[in-house]
Amino acid sequence: MLVSVIIPVYNVEEFLRCSLDSIINQTYEELEIIIVNDGSTDDSLSICKEYEKDDTRITVYSKENGGLMSAWLYGLSKAKGEYVYFIDSDDWVDNNNIEVMVKEVIKKPQIDMVVCNCIREYKNNSEFYPMYNYSSGIYEYDDIKNKIYPSIINNGNFQTRGIQVNRWGKLIRKEILDSNIKYCDKRISYGEDFNIMLPVFLDCKTLSFVENTYYHYRLNGGSILGAYNRKMLEQIEILYNILFQILTDMQCEFLKEQLLADYLSSMVLCVKNELKSTKKIYDISQVVKKIRNATYTLEALNKTDYSRYSLVNKSIISMISKPKRIEKLQLVLFRKFFYLKMKKISY
């Protein structure tokens, strides 16, 4: 069975060899390795070409820079495998990763998706990060509806999902990806994986969760909290308009409250994002009011039980729900808190 491995590449020369080595050394060898160079300006392309020369399974494509979604979509258009496996070019996987997943397909032919677990790799340490919150094994459609759906998007905690929405670390039947790329909007750069993975999850009739093989996710930014994103609110609005439409199209509106809870979490992250900006406190307070007036905020506030959220997240929700009570001192203290947190985290 041919598996198409799709690797989007953009300016990752420092980590690229580690990622490519982990794929070419997989114990499962029937691979088509598609590398999409998304307009890299460093030495990434020459490294890719070097690997292409040494391994006949590798094909390198180059395109103008268009962002992560455009790169993996381009790779998907070239894929010939029955199943697709995505890996980001600064990450790596265990050598038996794809073989363990393929064995699940052998047990249950035409399985729609196999999900492995993850290890987050920091500069000086690693930590286990679960990609699913269910028992390992194969789930048929009735079990998916009864055991997976009740917490698939949100389980009652702050942006905590039954299955992580990353496209990487999953063996996915290509047919199910192809039938749902219509929902992909290339304008989205925040939550772009959620854009494709929600309809894929809802299309799955059979899926499997496996243990004892890992995807290694490298956190290589300057801070876990990331840089200020001036288009975050706009991006969230585009994304969730599509996600709510997906629930309607796929007759899964019973999941709306879960998606509203996830939306509210995104609005909280949006406030935190503004606290990282160089804007004056008054300007931030105006953005908070704009967040309150976003498309689904009021409905999310009314429908979401956020009693299990942290004190900080509850306080931010209070600011969103009562914008007239936003006090300058409150925003100053929050900004100082997040500034100190960003300075403390070095990797």
Task: Give an overview of the whole structure.
- The protein has 347 residues and is an alpha/beta fold.
- Helix content is 44%, strand content 17%.
- It contains 13 helices and 10 strands.
- Strands 1, 2, 3, 4, 5, 6, 7, 8, 9 and 10 form a 10-stranded mixed sheet that branches.
- Strand 2 (31-38), helix 2 (44-54) and strand 3 (58-63) form a beta-alpha-beta unit.
- Helix 7 packs parallel to helix 8 (232-249), helix 9 packs across helix 11 (297-303) and helix 9 packs across helix 12 (311-321).
- The radius of gyration is 21 Å and the shape is globular.
- The model is unreliable at 342-347 (pLDDT under 50).
Primary descriptors:
single chain; 347 residues; alpha/beta; ten-stranded mixed β-sheet; 10 strands
Which helices and strands appear, and what pairs or packs with what?
Elements lengths: L2 E7 L6 H9 L6 E8 L5 H11 L3 E6 L4 H11 L4 E4 L5 E2 L3 H11 L5 E9 L4 E4 L7 E3 L1 H8 L21 E4 H5 L13 H12 L3 E12 L13 H18 L6 H20 L5 H12 L4 H7 L7 H11 L6 H17 L3
Helix pairs in contact: 7-8, 8-9, 9-10, 9-11, 9-12
How would you summarize this macromolecular structure in one to three sentences?
This protein has helices at residues 16-24, 44-54, 68-78, 97-107, 141-148, 174-178, 192-203, 232-249, 256-275, 281-292, 297-303, 311-321, 328-344, and strands at residues 3-9, 31-38, 58-63, 83-86, 92-93, 113-121, 126-129, 137-139, 170-173, 207-218.
Order of helices and strands: EHEHEHEEHEEEHEHHEHHHHHH
Helix content: 40-55%
State the secondary-structure class. alpha/beta
Main pleated sheet: 10 strands, mixed
Mean pLDDT: 91
User: Total number of helical segments?
Assistant: 13
- N-to-C terminal Cα separation, in Å? 39 Å
The low-confidence parts are 342-347
The coarse overall form would be: globular
Overall radius of gyration: 21 Å
Q: Can you count the beta strands?
A: 10
Strand content: 15-25%
